[in-house]
Amino acid sequence: VGVMGPWTCDPLLAQALPEVASRLAVARLNRDPTLNKGYWWDAVVVAEACRTPQAVTALLNAERYATALVGPLNPATCGAAGLLAAAWNKPLVSWACLGDVEGLDTLVTPLPEPAGVLHVVLRFFRWAHVAVVSAPQDLWREVGQGLAQDLRARGLPVTVMMAMGGWREADGDGGRGWMEMEEGAEGWRVLLGGEEQRVLLEEAEELGMADGTYVFIPYDTLTFPLPFHHLPYPILANNSKLRRAYDAVLTVTVDS
């Protein structure tokens, strides 16, 4: 099984230790005859390139050494990866692909679609006005654009899709430029992804936007179970501004 991901691109994904995780997973699989069905499993890590146009090139040799693929994490590469997997008749198991893509006959989605989960949450609270803000990396920009398109297709007016990046260098205020542009647009729910959410939340607290007028929903937590029992978060303990801003954050995880 080839395990795909941009492991060297994103600071959070870089901590995932995919080689270790893959070894642990296949060791557990090989010990359990009810799961392995008499087969011997092995895994190889396939690194996606950081830039979207090159992200699918690592797949081109996968036909020779992988009978199935897990990934990709960049939804912009799902179409190309899915067509290759379909041509090779190999399963492609991805939790990051957004929306229905025609012709991907071997694509398997092991989790509820994140955009669908978000739509259910937003509809439950009757939150219709949505802005999507992403980190500047290709991965998160593609996730943000795909998410905005998917939510629009479901009838939600996503009127802003913007990638953070360059603002702190340009005006010294991080996400403040976007915040001030949207200040006064009451009822907006802002969906985040990536590490830049800390900067945006600190700026939101300074501008008084973390008082309940806005709700901030981290997107990345929808794709993994976030531990929450008796777990300390040092960044919140040592940052009173961020701790106050977190009153406006709604975290939806696989567990919940």
Keywords:
Rossmann fold, 256 residues, 2 domains, alpha/beta, 38% helix, 14% strand
In short, what is this structure?
38% of the residues lie in helices and 14% in strands.
Identify low-pLDDT runs: 166-172
Number of strand elements: 9
Total domains = 2
Query: Number of helical runs?
Result: 12
| CATH topology call of the largest domain | Rossmann fold
Per CATH, the architecture of the largest domain is 3-Layer(aba) Sandwich
Main beta sheet = 5 strands, parallel
List the quaternary state of the chains: single chain
**CATH class (first level) name of the largest domain:** Alpha Beta
CATH superfamily of the largest domain: Response regulator
N/C terminus separation: 29 Å
How confident is the prediction overall: mean pLDDT? 83
Task: Give me the strand/helix succession.
Answer: EHHEHHEHEEHEHEHHEHEHH
Cα gyration radius (Å): 20 Å
Shape: globular
> Strands of the biggest beta sheet: in what spatial order?
2-1-3-4-5
Q: Structural class of the secondary elements?
A: alpha/beta
Share of residues in strands: 5-15%
Query: Helical content, roughly?
Result: 25-40%
